[in-house]
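Input (Interferon-related developmental regulator 1):
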Amino acid sequence: GGQPRNVQPFSDEDASIETMSHCSGFSDPASFTEDGPEVDEEATQEDLEYKLKGFIDLTLDKSAKTRQAALESLKSAFTSKILYEFIMERRMTLTDSIERCIKKGKSDEQCAAAGLACLLCVQMGSGIESEEIFKTLGPVLKKIVCDGTASIQARQACATCLGICCFIVTDDITELYSTMECLENIFTKAYQRERDTNGVSSTHNTVLHVSALLAWTLLLTICPMNEVKKKIEVHLHKLPSLLSCDDLNMRIAAGETLALLFELARETDADFFYEDMDLLTEKLRALATDGNKHRAKVDKRKQRSVFRDVLRAVEERDFPTEMVKFGPERMYIDCWVKKQTYDTFKEILGSGMQYHLQSNDFLRNVFELGPPVMLDAATLKTMKISRFERHLYNSAAFKARTKARSKCRDKRADVGEFF
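Output:
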């Protein structure tokens, strides 16, 4: 009975448009297969649920490898589908499986279980069912986060999960403050590191500190204003020290948190004044124009891009508005609070973020998008060009691009000629 089983992972085929009726027709127009054969949607849905029941059973298997594969397959399904009714009937079983895997599993299994817990709460939304899930898993997650003997990866995953689940379900202000204190106890250790002449050195704990800081920042966005003021007073003068860390992700997390704190501070007090503004802007400007040769080009580009925005936020109170497209809808990210929230959920949902923005009631409430837009198959079909037209367009664009590049590269070409 202890032999590992071959687990067939949840595949893209399982996430095809064939289960569109189950998702109320909110799928992205790009996924609508206009030329495909007609499919028995009810049978397809039953097949999907049968597979998922099998994965849930396998989370109790004796083999750690089998359990982890089952957790990963469930994560893929929860990312790509809205499965509220299916999960509602099995939420206690799923919660017990996740709890057991976090308590008794090794590092990779704990990470997979924590990720599934996040997605479970995202699927269930902010109702009483999610509160029951968090009451069971919250203490377990906190224990792992604070356990110095647990693996850094497991503690990191549990810190992220703790912040996201608390953000989704917590109406109890005491629980919110307790969770924030747990995360604070982790990332504030980064303040206490010994500094050398080159600034703050990164350690193997840095990834944990980054995750705890980002999870804490997410929870700060839903705190009452009087609590926000207290947190700003405590952390605004300490966070700049993390800008000197060797780790790129820590520098970026600290910079974006600073931008968000300044945004919240100015919302609570229009005349907000920061004493060390000149020193801070000097640090931010140095990071926004960093040209150190010992850093990778990709890292430098990413850092400069982020800190240009952070500098504008601190100096000019400006935010570069971003537009997110999903299906026929558009969402504008126009502040750091919204950006922090969007980035957090995009990290756990990955490629399923657009689909959940269209279909998930909880996420739509978070971003004030209103009820899901109802689109039937006929509407989706009219929104999409045919495969033949798309092929012709791509072919013409490819030929034009090739011809233009060839002329630019060929020095013998007649400069006056143009295609």
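Residues 15-37, 194-198, 411-419 have pLDDT under 50 and may be disordered.
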